Backbone:
């Protein structure tokens, strides 16, 4: 089984398009084999984005989208909130698709190929992720705990995790580093925000 957090140069390309609409904003995303949720917008990602968009204090923020896949989370936030977004992924095909989707949706965003924070030097107002649960708990915690040093002083980490994929144990692991809020629960998905404690 090929995973979306690995690179397989031999994987056959089968481009497809996924549409998404938020209020008056219409998006078209190019997707392909070898990336997460290749045929439709993942429910957890959509819930995360739409929970964030319900808030008003986001404009002009600098945002980092970690494990961006084909760019859904970062691109929607960049367009709707008019904020500066950097997207990162370790998967070369995901990075390529995100570049295409930034152009396609005419947003001000940039994408960096990076294994988690390896190629990231800046600090951000907000780090957002739908972490790759199948990559294992160690990788998930590297993303969530590693966010701390890339957040500005008042910065916030936002993430989505399913209850049955260990939400409660993840919260426990983070409690020493962050003040955590459960912002929304729906269909077994938890939307969490975490501020540096």
Residues:
């Amino acid at each position: 089984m090929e995973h979306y957090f690995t690179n397989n140069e031999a994987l056959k390309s089968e481009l497809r398009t996924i549409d998404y609409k938020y209020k008056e904003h219409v998006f078209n995303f190019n997707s392909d084999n070898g990336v997460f949720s290749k045929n439709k917008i993942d429910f957890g990602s959509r819930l995360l984005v739409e929970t964030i968009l319900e808030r008003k204090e986001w404009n002009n923020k600098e945002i980092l989208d970690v494990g961006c896949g084909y760019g859904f989370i970062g691109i929607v936030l960049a367009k709707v909130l008019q904020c500066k977004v950097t997207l990162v992924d370790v998967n070369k095909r995901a990075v390529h698709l995100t570049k295409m989707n930034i152009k396609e949706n005419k947003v001000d965003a940039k994408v960096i190929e990076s294994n988690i924070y390896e190629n990231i030097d800046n600090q951000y107002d907000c780090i957002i992720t739908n972490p790759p649960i199948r990559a294992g708990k160690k990788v998930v915690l590297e993303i969530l705990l590693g966010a701390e040093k890339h957040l500005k002083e008042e910065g916030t980490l936002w993430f989505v995790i399913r209850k049955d994929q260990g939400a409660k144990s993840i919260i426990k692991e983070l409690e020493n580093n962050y003040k955590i809020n459960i912002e929304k629960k729906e269909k077994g998905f938890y939307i969490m925000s975490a501020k540096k404690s």
In short: The chain has one domain: 16-196. The mean pLDDT is 89. The longest strand covers residues 151-162. The CA atoms of residues 18 and 41 lie 7 Å apart.
